[in-house]
Write a structure and sequence with these properties.
heterodimer; A: alpha+beta; Heat Shock Protein 90; Aminopeptidase; seven-stranded mixed beta sheet; six-stranded antiparallel beta sheet; about 30% strand; globular; B: about 375 residues; alpha/beta; Aspartate Aminotransferase, domain 1; Aspartate Aminotransferase, domain 2; four-stranded antiparallel beta sheet
C-alpha cells in the first residue's frame, strides 16, 4: 500500500521465513523509488533480510508484522512494528548474536549485520510490548567542491533570513571549507544532503546574506527530542563581524523557537567563543576518529524557559556526581535514591543500540529491566569493542526509576558519566562514555 | 480501547506546546532552597487590592459560595459602563482578560483567517490564535514599539483581528492618540482592532489615549481592561472588554456565561468604587521603584528598557533563564524574556522598595559569581 504520494510504503505480513523475499524485494524496490543509489538500496535490503530473519527465528515467530519504508528525502527509513512477549525480548539485544559457542555465532548475527549495513539502527519499546525497530540508510551525495569560495564582503545592512536552495548549499560549502572537525559535523561535507535535510523538514537553517548574495553566516537546527533543539553553529565566515553576526544568528534561532514546544537548546559541536556566555557548559564527550588523536567535543546548553524543576532517580554511586553537576548548572532537582532491597527481578534486560556507522559510534539505552544488568552492560561493551566500535555511549533517563539500577554495572564496566542533558528524557539524561582499558 | 488522538485531535492542537505555569511558592522555595520569595515575575500589585475591594473580600459570606454568580456580571457591567460612559451591553466580563481574548478570536475568526500582532508582546493573542487553528502574523517591533505601518502592510482579506498591546508588555512603549487615530483611520473598519489596555491605570503620559473614548468614532474598536494589575485581584481572575453594541453582541455569542465567580464580581465592583487613592499610591510606588532600578542598573552598566507600566526590562550579559535560576536561589523570582523573544533580557515587576533592594543585591551577587 503506497500512501502520501509515494512517501511511504507499508507491508503487513506474518513473520514467517517464507515471506522473506517479499519483504526484501519490497524494501529494495521502495528504496530505489525513493532515490537511493543501487549500493545503498542493496544494503538497506540486506539489513531488512537480516532483521526479518532474526524476527522470524528469535523474536516474534509467526506473529503479525508491519514493515514501513519512508522516504525522508536524504535517507530512507524502514520500521518494523510488532508485538512480542517479554520472554522473547532478549533477541533484540544487539549482543544476542553472541553465542557461547563461536561456531554457531555466525548463524545468529542478524541485528549486528543489519547495523553494519545501514547508517542508524534503533529500537523503541512502547506500551504492551509494542516494538518499533528502525533502520535508516542515507543517500550518497557528492562532496563539497574543493575550490575555495571567496570570502563574503560584509558591507551594508544584513539581517537573518531563511535561505533558498542555492543559499543553503553555499552555507554548507562554506562550513565544509572553513571549519575543522569536530566543529563541523560530517554532513556539512555534502551540500546536497544539507539541502535535502532542510527540504525534508527535519532541519531548519537561518543565514545572513550580504547585499551581493553571499552567505556570511548561518545556523542549522533540528529537534533532537520532542523538547530539545540541537543547533549546529552559528558559523560566521567574516571574521571581522564574527561576534556581532553570531549573536544575530543565535537570537534569530532562539526567537524562532521561543514559543515552540522546545524547552532547551543544545550544541554538541561547540559554539563560537563570543557566544560562550550565552550558554551553560555541560561538559565534553570524546570521539575517537579512525585515524589520529581523540577529540573532545564541548557540549553547551541553554534553557528557553523557567526551570520547572523535577524529581530525578539515581543510585548512591551516582549521587555525588549529580549533586555536583546540578549545583554547577543551577538546576533545581529533587534527587531520590533507588535502593536494591533484594526484590526479585525477572527476565533478561534489553538495551537498544543506536548505531551511527559514519562516526563508529553506538549509543545504548535501556529498554527493559532485568536481573542481568551488570552482565548485560559488560556483554555489550565487550561485543561492541570486538566489533571495533570506537565511540560507545550509554544514556540513562533519570526520570525512570529502574534505570538507576544500571549505575553500578556501568561504572564497573568502565563507563563514566560525562554530561547531563537537561529535559532530554522523561527527566534529564546522563550520558556515560565507555573508556577502553589502555593496551 | 484507547482513543486515537492522532485522528481525534486537530494538528494545530496536537502541535501546540501547553504553557507550564510555575509551581506554587512553597514548592519553588523547597526546590531552590530559599526561605523567602519576592514575586517579581507577574506584574502584580504589591499593595494588593484597593481597601474597598479588600473589605468586599473579607465580607464575602461563605454560604454565597453555593449560589451561582450573575451569569453576565449584571451589576459589574453596569458599574463599568457608568465608569466609562457607555451602555452596559457594550461590556463583556470574562474570567481574566485571557478569556476575553478567546471570546474575540472565537467570534471573528474561522479556518483560513489570520490575526495580526507583534512578535514581542503579550503571548496570549498568539497562543489562542495558534491553538484555534488561526494564523498569527507577528510583526517585529520597530524601535521597541508596535510597528503601525508594518502591521498595515501585513493585513489581507483574511485578516480579522489586529491586537495592539498599549502600553506594550514588556517594552512599556505606547501608541499616542495621534498614532492610534491614524491607524484606525487606515484600517477603516475592515478589521476588528483590539487595544489591550491591561496596564492603562499605570500610564501617566499625557498623550496616551483612553481607548474607551474612541469607541463612538470607531465601531470596529474593542478595548480590553483587567482587574489583575492596578486593581490587584489577579488571584480572582476577572477582566473585561468594551466595544460597539453590535460587535459586543456578536462576541457575546462565544462567551461562556457564569465563568466569573461571585467573589471576583464583588471585589471588582468595590475596586471600581474605591476612592481611597489606591491608584495614586500605586503609581507613586512604581515611580519610586523605577527610578531606583534605573539608577542602580545604570551604575551596573546594564541596559534597561523602561517605559510605562509597572515593569522594567534589563539586558543581561548572559542567559536570562540561567539568571532566573540563580536569582531563585536568592529568593527573587523574575520573568526571563526568551519566551517574549528577548533572549538575555529579564522583566522585573516594579514593587516595594524592600523587594527592589533585594533584587539589586541578588543581581550583583549572581553577576559577580
Amino acid at each position: 500500500m503506497m500512501t502520501r504520494q509515494d512517501d511511504t510504503l507499508t507491508v503487513r505480513l506474518a513473520s514467517r521465513i517464507a515471506f522473506l523475499p517479499v519483504a526484501v524485494r519490497c524494501i529494495e524496490t521502495a528504496a530505489g523509488v525513493f532515490g537511493l543509489g543501487r549500493d545503498e538500496a542493496l544494503k538497506l535490503s540486506l539489513a531488512t533480510e537480516e532483521i526479518f530473519a532474526c524476527l522470524c527465528h528469535e523474536v516474534c515467530r509467526g506473529e503479525p508484522l508491519e514493515i514501513e519504508c519512508q522516504n525522508k528525502l536524504y535517507y530512507a527509513r524502514v520500521q518494523f512494528r510488532f508485538s512480542v512477549s517479554a520472554l522473547n525480548l532478549g533477541g533484540l539485544n544487539i549482543t544476542s548474536t553472541m553465542a557461547d559457542d563461536p561456531e554457531t555465532a555466525q548463524e545468529h548475527m542478524g541485528l549486528m549485520i543489519a547495523a553494519r549495513s545501514v547508517d542508524r539502527l534503533n529500537i523503541i519499546v512502547g506500551k504492551n510490548n509494542q516494538i518499533c525497530l528502525t533502520i535508516e540508510k542515507e543517500k550518497a551525495y557528492p562532496q563539497a567542491p574543493q575550490i575555495a569560495l571567496p570570502a563574503p564582503d560584509p558591507v551594508g545592512d544584513m539581517a537573518p533570513t531563511s535561505p533558498d536552495l542555492e543559499g543553503l548549499k553555499q552555507f554548507a560549502i562554506r562550513v565544509a571549507q572553513t571549519r575543522p572537525v569536530p566543529f563541523r559535523p560530517p554532513f556539512f561535507n555534502y551540500p546536497g544532503k544539507v539541502a535535502d535535510m532542510a527540504a525534508g523538514g527535519d532541519h531548519q537553517a537561518i543565514v545572513v546574506e550580504t547585499p551581493k548574495g553571499d552567505i556570511a553566516g548561518g545556523i542549522l537546527m533540528t529537534f533532537r527530542t520532542d523538547r530539545i533543539v540541537q543547533i549546529y553553529g552559528p558559523y560566521v565566515f567574516t571574521p571581522s563581524a564574527e561576534a556581532e553576526m553570531a549573536k544575530m544568528l543565535l537570537d534569530a534561532c532562539i526567537s524562532s523557537i521561543a514559543r515552540s514546544r522546545a524547552i532547551g537548546l543544545v550544541s554538541l559541536n561547540g559554539v563560537p567563543v563570543s557566544l560562550s556566555q550565552q550558554f551553560e557548559p555541560l561538559g565534553a564527550l570524546s570521539y575517537s576518529p579512525e585515524n589520529g588523536e581523540m577529540l573532545r567535543q564541548s557540549c553547551f546548553y541553554r534553557l528557553l524557559h523557567e526551570d520547572p524543576g523535577s524529581v530525578v532517580w539515581t543510585h548512591s554511586d551516582l549521587k555525588g556526581y549529580l549533586e555536583q553537576e546540578y549545583r554547577r548548572l543551577v538546576l533545581a532537582r529533587d534527587i531520590k535514591m533507588v535502593q536494591d532491597l533484594g526484590e526479585t527481578r525477572s527476565g533478561v534486560s534489553i538495551f537498544s543500540a543506536e548505531v551511527n556507522g559514519e562516526m563508529s559510534a553506538v549509543t545504548l539505552r535501556p529498554l527493559w529491566p532485568g536481573a542481568d544488568f551488570a552482565a548485560n552492560v559488560e556483554r555489550h561493551a565487550r561485543f561492541l569493542r570486538e566489533e571495533r566500535m570506537r565511540n560507545i555511549f550509554f544514556e540513562l533517563d533519570l526520570g525512570i526509576p529502574w534505570h538507576a539500577a544500571l549505575v553500578p554495572g556501568l561504572l564497573t564496566s568502565r563507563f563514566r558519566p560525562e554530561i547531563i542533558l537537561p529535559f532530554a528524557g522523561q527527566a534529564d539524561l546522563v550520558v556515560f562514555q565507555y573508556y577502553a582499558p589502555q593496551s | 480501547m484507547r482513543p486515537n488522538l492522532d485522528s481525534l485531535v486537530p494538528a494545530y492542537v496536537r502541535e501546540f506546546e501547553p504553557y507550564i505555569p510555575s509551581k506554587p511558592d512553597p514548592e519553588l522555595k523547597k526546590l531552590y532552597g530559599c526561605k523567602t520569595l519576592y514575586r517579581l515575575n507577574n506584574n502584580e500589585n504589591p499593595l494588593g487590592p484597593p481597601p474597598g475591594a479588600q473589605e468586599a473580600i473579607r465580607l464575602f459570606p461563605p454560604p454565597a459560595g453555593a449560589v451561582y454568580p450573575s451569569g453576565d456580571c449584571y451589576y459589574l457591567r453596569h458599574e463599568i459602563a457608568s465608569f466609562h460612559g457607555i451602555h452596559p451591553d457594550q461590556v463583556l466580563v470574562g474570567n481574566g482578560a485571557n478569556e476575553v481574548i478567546t471570546f474575540v478570536i472565537k467570534a471573528f475568526c474561522e479556518k483560513g483567517d489570520n490575526i495580526v500582532t507583534a512578535d514581542r508582546t503579550f503571548a496570549v493573542y498568539e497562543w489562542v490564535a495558534t491553538f484555534s487553528g488561526i494564523e498569527a502574523r507577528l510583526i517585529p517591533l520597530k524601535a521597541g514599539r508596535f510597528d503601525d505601518a508594518g502591521m498595515l502592510r501585513r493585513i489581507d482579506e483574511n485578516t480579522k483581528i489586529i491586537f495592539v498591546c498599549n502600553p506594550n508588555n514588556p517594552t512599556g512603549t505606547y501608541w499616542s492618540k495621534e498614532t492610534l487615530t491614524a491607524f484606525l483611520d487606515a484600517v477603516n473598519g475592515k478589521q476588528i482592532v483590539v487595544i489591550d489596555e491591561a496596564y492603562f491605570e499605570f500610564v501617566e503620559a499625557e498623550d496616551y489615549p483612553d481607548g474607551a473614548a474612541f469607541l463612538k468614532t470607531y465601531p470596529n474598536l474593542v478595548i480590553f481592561r483587567t482587574f489583575s494589575k492596578m486593581y490587584g485581584i489577579a488571584g480572582l481572575r476577572i477582566g473585561y472588554l468594551m466595544g460597539d453594541l453590535n460587535v459586543v453582541d456578536m462576541t457575546r455569542r462565544t462567551c461562556v456565561v457564569y465563568s466569573v465567580n461571585n467573589l471576583a464580581q464583588e471585589a471588582a465592583l468595590a475596586a471600581l468604587r474605591d476612592n481611597t487613592g489606591h491608584i495614586r499610591r500605586t503609581r507613586e510606588l512604581v515611580r519610586q521603584s523605577r527610578a531606583f532600578l534605573r539608577e542602580e542598573l545604570a551604575r551596573m552598566g546594564l541596559p534597561v528598557i523602561a517605559g510605562e507600566g509597572n515593569y522594567l526590562v534589563v539586558k543581561l550579559p548572559g542567559s536570562d533563564t540561567l539568571a532566573y535560576r540563580k536569582l531563585m536561589r536568592e529568593g527573587i523570582m523574575i520573568r526571563p524574556m526568551t519566551s517574549f523573544r528577548y533572549p538575555n533580557h529579564i522583566r522585573i515587576t516594579l514593587a516595594q522598595m524592600e523587594a527592589m533592594e533585594a533584587f539589586i543585591a541578588a543581581l550583583k551577587k549572581i553577576l559577580n559569581d
